[in-house]
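Deliverable D4.2, example record:
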Amino acid sequence: MPTYQYLDIAKMIDHSLLNPTFSVEQLEAGIQLAIAYDVGSVCILPYYHKRCVELLAGTTVAPSSTVGFPHGGHHMKSKLFEAELLIEEGCLELDMVTNISATLSGNWKLVESEIAAIVRIAHDAKRRVKVIFENCYLNTEQKIRLCKICCDAGADWVKTSTGYGTGGATMEDLQLMLDNVTAPVQVKAAGGIRDCDSLLKVWEMGITRVGSSRTVEMLGEVRNRLGLPAISPIASAPAPSSY
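Output generated by the structure prediction step:
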């Protein structure tokens, strides 16, 4: 018998709406889908985040968006401005990309100060932060160092990937990150978790969030295994012309 309830798994999902080619109609439909499946959050393109906040009002799905996405090489002041603007619009969770170039160059002072500053801005506003490493470009020592930096800064999650690098989450990286963070810091998988079995496996490992665009396939199968009714497709609400 399953040892989980539907919401145990559904609330792991950050439904990803970050594809730069998505139309407004696709973004609207994606938000409605996330509401229907009652996921953890919708992580959406920043320009459409304000509309996402409006549509998620009154639901248990959190609005989230990105800072310094997808390459992390933005000027630190730009990242801070992005974070402040998203918070002003009602963002509850910020997914920020570390400065990958600085990490690879060993400029840990810049990496530490940037993460700490964004975490501080978010926590002062009672928001949460996921720090994206982009593990496909990093060695083991760099991943462990980033875990420590994030723990010292008080980040809420460390996250494997943007989904736009050369690779996504691996079981080895997820275990490495779990082994090198201390509570209350959690671990998020992004990229590479594409089916129900993989989703349940990482849940059993202790992963608390998974970034995914395959919400229907994965959570549909979770519902099927639990004997719950399938969720009918829901048409998107008309999008206002100002977005």
